[in-house]
Amino acid sequence: MRRSLLTAAVAAAPILAAALPASADAQVLELGDQTGTPLVAPTCPPSVPPAQCTIVLTRVTALATFSDGTYLPTMVTKAGRIVAFTVGLSSLSSSTATRKKDINFLNASYGGDAQVQMTILRQVKHSSKKKRKPHEFRVVAESPVFHVVQYLGSVAQLPLTQSIEVKPGDIVALTTPTWAPALAIDLSGKFHYRQSRNHHCDQPPTVQKAQTSGSDTTYDCTYGGTRPEYAATEVTYPVASNPVH
Asked: What is the pTM of this model?
C-alpha cells in the first residue's frame, strides 16, 4: 500500500507543479557590496603618515569605477527601487581628544558636520559625437542628506523614508556636501573611483563640487588604489508571471 501511495504521489507531482503559480518574487540586491571585499570603516594604513592619510572625502560626489576589478559596481542592472544605502565611516582616531579636535577642524574647514547623501547618476548622451564626454553624468535623483558623525567608526546602513526608483544603467554615487571619512586608501590597482570635478585633482576642492539635482558634471578626477566605502540596497520589481496583452 505504501508503494502504491508513493507512486501515485510521484505521478501527481507534475500536475500539481503545473497548477502552482509561477514565481514572481522581487530580488534584494546590494549594489557595490557584491564583490569579494566587504565594506569597512576605513583606517589609516600603518605605512601611511597621518599627513598623507587622505581618507576624508570633502564637498564632492564620488563614483566607484572599479571594485575588486568589477567595473561600475554600483550600476543598476534591473529596474527597481533603492530602499537604503550603506556607508563605511572611519573613527578618525582611537583617542577621544584627538577625534574631537579632528571633527572640530573638519567642521570649520568644510562648512558643517559630517554629512552623506546618495546620488543617482545617469550618463549624458549627446546627439553629436563631438560633444560626447565619456565621463559626463547627470543627477536624476538623490536621497535626503544624513548627518553621520554619530556613526563614525562603523559601517552604517541608512534606510530611506521614501524609496527611489532606478532604471538599468543608472549608477549610485556617494555625495559628501561637507565631509565624511569614507575612503579606504592604499589598496591594490583593482580599486578606482572618480570625483565630480575636472582640475586640481591632487588637492581637496576649494569650493563646493558636490553634484546637485539636474546638473551635468564631468568626472575627470580619478584615483587609483582607493575605494569609497558605500553601497545601496535595491528591491527589484517582480517579473510579470501573467502579462496582459
From this structure: 0.86
